[in-house]
Amino acid sequence: MKKASPFAVIILAAGKGSRMKSAKPKVMHEIAGLPILNWLISRVEGLNPEKIIVVTAPNMNDVIEAAAPHTCVIQKEQLGTGDAVKPAMAALKDFSGKVLVLLGDEPFVDIDILQNMLDTDGPSVMAIEPPSNKGLGRVITDKDFNLVEIVEQKDCDEEQKKITLSNAGNFCFEAKKLTEWLDALSNNNAQGEYYLTDVPKIAQANGVKTKVIKAKTSMIWGINTKSELADHEIFAQMMLRERAMSNGVTMIDPDSVTLSFDTQLDEDVTLEPNVFIGKGVIIAKNVTIHAFSYIEGTEIEEGAEIGPFARIRPKSHIGKKASIGNFIEVNRSIIEEGAKAKHVSYLGDTILGAKSNVGAGTVIANYDGFFKHQSQIGNNVFIGSNSTIISPVIIGDNAIIAAGSNVNKDIPG
């Protein structure tokens, strides 16, 4: 087997995303709970690059944190994509392999196409034929699909605007050559910027041809607006649901279910319509999540039943065969094996022991106006309807709390 040559990845992530109408950097907007940037990083990590360098702008500390442990460099001024690559190349001055230069707003770029670019002799550029190429540079090729020119839309004449083959914004170059060609860039264009798309023209003048690698449009979109962000969310949810169902999860109405990038679902989990699963959820086998339930930051053990209309908040743990019914909210609580809370109750900062039963309308009052407190409820405890447990209290095993009780003292078992 041929040994893979070393390569590096540069991700251009300095865009402020003005068309997103947001103070948040464009690449920090989330898809299925994960920033755009991290979707892309996760994909290219699968190719095992020697180094990943993220180019960001001043004061984008959240981008730097998201990119960790990978290297970040700063593009001090917004002078175009060609200018953005220069600080990254300074961090690769001793590197002699190939460099993939990728746009940070294309989270679902096809890694097989990236591998084709790496395997191509000489420079390569990714091209697409999208349903609409508004705003995209047009790709002009010769009969052998070598690049002749990329013309930015604002610089296109009327005939060039009719060209359907468009620039996807991703390139592959030899590192040493790229440094030399970047130094030769000019900003003599309508935008007054240094275009990375002009680098192949400089390479051609030096006798080096750039190959055009065509990719499927569905995998190369680019996110510049909230509408395009929503399109990517739809795509991500389809991908996550398909993965879950192929692993044995049952979804009655898949299109109504929302998952997160890190959702872990075991086989024979059933998700009814309109279930929302946020970040940090692990669900074991034979669990049923009934309709209109909202779950985040929680582990649910085998055989448990949740909902309908339940909310399980972060730092909670639902034990085996436990039952959390309709209009129950669980927050930072441990519900042990076989315990039940079936109707209209709030369980906050609670340890509810095995096989205990919480009656309808019960509230664990965990907040005194200043601090949160925890209550511990033992095994086989019965709490009657419309009771209020004022934390912190300890209720012993096998205790019975009459309906309508206010409990503010420990109760022995």
How would you describe the overall organization of this protein?
There is one protein chain. By secondary structure, the protein is α/β, with parallel strands linked by helices. 19% of the residues lie in helices and 29% in strands. It is built from eight helices and 34 strands. The strands form six sheets. Strands 12, 14, 15, 17, 18, 20, 21, 23, 25, 27, 30 and 33 form a twelve-stranded parallel sheet that branches. Helix 2 (61-67) links the parallel strand 4 (51-56) and strand 5 (71-74). Helix 3 (81-90) packs across helix 6. The radius of gyration is 28 Å and the shape is elongated. The chain starts with 6 loop residues before the first strand and ends in a 6-residue tail after the last strand. The mean pLDDT is 94.
Fold blueprint:
Blueprint lengths: L6 E6 L17 E2 L2 E2 H10 L5 E6 L4 H7 L3 E4 L6 H10 L7 E6 L7 H9 L4 E5 L9 E4 L5 E5 L6 H4 L4 E9 H9 L15 H7 L5 E4 L11 H21 L3 E2 L12 E2 L4 E2 L4 E2 L4 E2 L4 E2 L4 E2 L2 E3 L4 E2 L4 E2 L3 E3 L4 E9 L2 E2 L4 E9 L1 E3 L4 E2 L4 E3 L9 E3 L4 E2 L4 E3 L3 E2 L4 E2 L4 E2 L6
Parallel strand pairs: 1-4, 1-6, 4-5, 7-11, 12-14, 13-16, 14-17, 15-18, 16-19, 17-20, 18-21, 19-22, 20-23, 21-23, 22-24, 23-25, 24-26, 25-27, 26-29, 27-30, 28-31, 29-32, 30-33, 31-34
Antiparallel strand pairs: 2-3, 6-10, 7-10, 8-9
Helix pairs in contact: 3-6
